[in-house]
């Protein structure tokens, strides 16, 4: 992009042949100019890395002396020069304080020079650790205590050794601060209902922050949310009140339906007087089946019917006289 700006400032016409870093390019071909610039920068970085990994003359002398010691005490020296790392491990070798080019070694067998090389093993397996409970003030001013679990692993052994002192400890501390920052922007309802979304956002933030340390955060889970006791009591009272209100509504609806059914049954019985006698006999059958010790004296309904009719007529007369 810088070269294209220079071409525009220089007022070069299209299809003009120019030289950049010793390579010929056409001014209209901006892609080739950009690629050549990137390649030149990569070559410069490789040269700088080669200069950094150069151990110097004294280093080569010490390396030669170490080789002589290995040859002199062969094969006993093999016990000190041959090292093995497991399938899930990598070894970062330092030669006179500098990391060897080619990255970490392993798995399997590798060679180190005595008195010159040092190595550090790095475990690549996934590690799970608990984030200590954090007292967090949510967006709606509610204090809650939240803890989480983080699953992470090392994907670049050299970076995890050279860029940070203790990668897992740093990740644990960063997870605690990230948990506080993320949950501080959420309300209590979101905290209780959207745990998966909160865990995903935390996982993305931690993964981006720990990438320079060679750490890959695979998963984050919200473990527990502890509410204050007073808030728990208030929420329990509110839930109990709502349940009681729903129970009263259901009971009232049931009574309304039962009264309608009884009214319809009474209308049917009034239309057919024989139905009352059948209902009477059915009640006697039910009582005899459930309560065997009960003594029942059945009275014919016809005897009572005359008294009921006289009572109704008297009530009608009183109402008419009152009118």
Automatic annotation (TrEMBL):
KW Transmembrane (keyword) present: yes
Subcellular location: Membrane
Similarity field: Belongs to the band 7/mec-2 family.
Keywords: Membrane, Transmembrane, Transmembrane helix
Keyword set includes Transmembrane helix: yes
SMART domains assigned to the protein according to its UniProt record, in alphabetical order: PHB
Residue ranges occupied by any Band domain in the UniProt entry: 80-239
Stated name of the protein: Band 7 domain-containing protein
Residue intervals passing through the bilayer: 57-78
SUPFAM superfamilies per UniProt: Band 7/SPFH domain
InterPro entries, sorted: Band-7_stomatin-like, Band_7, Band_7/SPFH_dom_sf, Band_7/stomatin-like_CS, Stomatin_HflK_fam
Chief location category: membrane
Source domain of life: Eukaryota
PROSITE patterns: BAND_7
């Amino acid at each position: 992009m810088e070269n294209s700006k220079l071409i525009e400032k220089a007022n070069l016409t299209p299809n003009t042949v120019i030289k950049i870093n010793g390579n010929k390019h056409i001014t209209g071909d901006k892609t080739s100019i950009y690629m050549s610039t990137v390649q030149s920068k990569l070559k410069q970085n490789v040269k700088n890395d080669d200069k950094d990994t150069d151990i110097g003359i004294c280093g080569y002398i010490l390396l030669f002396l170490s080789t002589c010691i290995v040859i002199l005490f062969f094969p006993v020296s093999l016990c000190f020069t041959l090292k093995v790392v497991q399938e899930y491990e990598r070894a970062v070798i330092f030669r006179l304080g500098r990391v060897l080019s080619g990255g970490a070694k392993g798995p399997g067998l590798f060679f180190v020079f005595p008195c010159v090389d040092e190595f550090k093993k790095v475990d690549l397996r996934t590690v799970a650790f608990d984030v200590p409970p954090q007292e967090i003030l949510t967006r709606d001013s509610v204090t809650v205590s939240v803890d989480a679990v983080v699953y992470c692993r090392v994907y670049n052994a050299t970076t995890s050794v050279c860029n940070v002192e203790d990668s897992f400890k740093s990740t644990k501390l960063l997870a605690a601060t990230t948990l506080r920052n993320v949950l501080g922007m959420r309300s209590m309802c979101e905290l209780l209902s959207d745990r998966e979304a909160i865990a995903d956002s935390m996982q993305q933030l931690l993964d981006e922050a720990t990438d320079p340390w060679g750490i890959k955060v695979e998963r984050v889970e919200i473990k527990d949310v502890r509410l204050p006791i007073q808030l728990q009591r208030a929420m329990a009272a509110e839930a109990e009140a709502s349940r009681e209100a729903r129970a009263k509504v259901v009971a009232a609806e049931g009574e309304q339906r039962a009264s309608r059914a009884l009214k319809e049954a009474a209308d049917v019985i009034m239309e057919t007087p024989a139905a009352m006698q059948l209902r009477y006999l059915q009640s006697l059958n039910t009582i005899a089946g459930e309560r065997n010790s009960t003594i029942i004296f059945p009275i014919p309904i016809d005897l009572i019917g005359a008294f009921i009719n006289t009572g109704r007529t008297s009530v009608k007369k009183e109402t008419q006289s009152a009118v």
